């Protein structure tokens, strides 16, 4: 069940939340992960986004709520995107998770949740 807050986000913001959640789920923000997210936004979206505000929201989110928020944004991105855009963000999600050269179990759990939500094998 997507909250009203999530439904007000545009596709750029939802994509940012999806990728940034992967970035922070392991408890740290790695520069290489941030670079992947910025590359994704620059190449794929022209919508407006207040990165500082959105990042502050995500960093303030209690760790135990992050997975639930992630599922919400995954569902919302699905509603707002084409198959091509979903394939593209899935590729970038893997790049974020592997940016520090190893996928943590917390990152793997979110990747699995993404794949399950979108029926990806």
What key attributes describe this structure?
about 120 residues, globular, mainly alpha
Description:
- This protein is mainly alpha-helical.
- The protein has one domain (9-39, 51-117).
- The protein is built from 7 helices and no strands.
- It has helices spanning 4-7, 11-24, 31-44, 51-60, 63-80, 83-98, 105-117.
- It is globular.
Number of strands: 0
What is the number of domains?
1
Which class best fits the helix and strand makeup?
Answer: mainly alpha
CA gyration radius, whole angstroms: 13 Å
Largest sheet entry: none
Shape label: globular
Helix content bin: over 70%
Number of helices: 7
Average pLDDT for all residues = 90
Low-confidence residue ranges: none
Q: What is the topology?
A:
Layout: H1 4-7, H2 11-24, H3 31-44, H4 51-60, H5 63-80, H6 83-98, H7 105-117
Helix pairs in contact: 2-3, 2-4, 2-5, 2-6, 3-6, 5-7, 6-7
Task: Compose a concise summary of this entry.
The protein is mainly α and about 120 residues long.
């Amino acid at each position: 069940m997507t909250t009203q807050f999530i439904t007000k986000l545009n596709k750029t913001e939802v994509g940012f939340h999806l990728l940034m959640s992967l970035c922070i789920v392991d408890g740290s923000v790695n520069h290489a992960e941030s670079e992947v997210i910025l590359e994704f936004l620059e190449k794929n979206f022209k919508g407006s986004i207040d990165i500082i505000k959105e990042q502050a929201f995500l960093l303030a989110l209690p760790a135990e709520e992050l997975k639930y928020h992630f599922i919400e944004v995954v569902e919302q991105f699905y509603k707002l995107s084409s198959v091509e855009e979903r394939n593209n963000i899935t590729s970038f999600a893997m790049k974020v998770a592997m940016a520090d050269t190893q996928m943590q179990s917390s990152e793997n759990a979110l990747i699995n949740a993404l794949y399950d939500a979108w029926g990806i094998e």
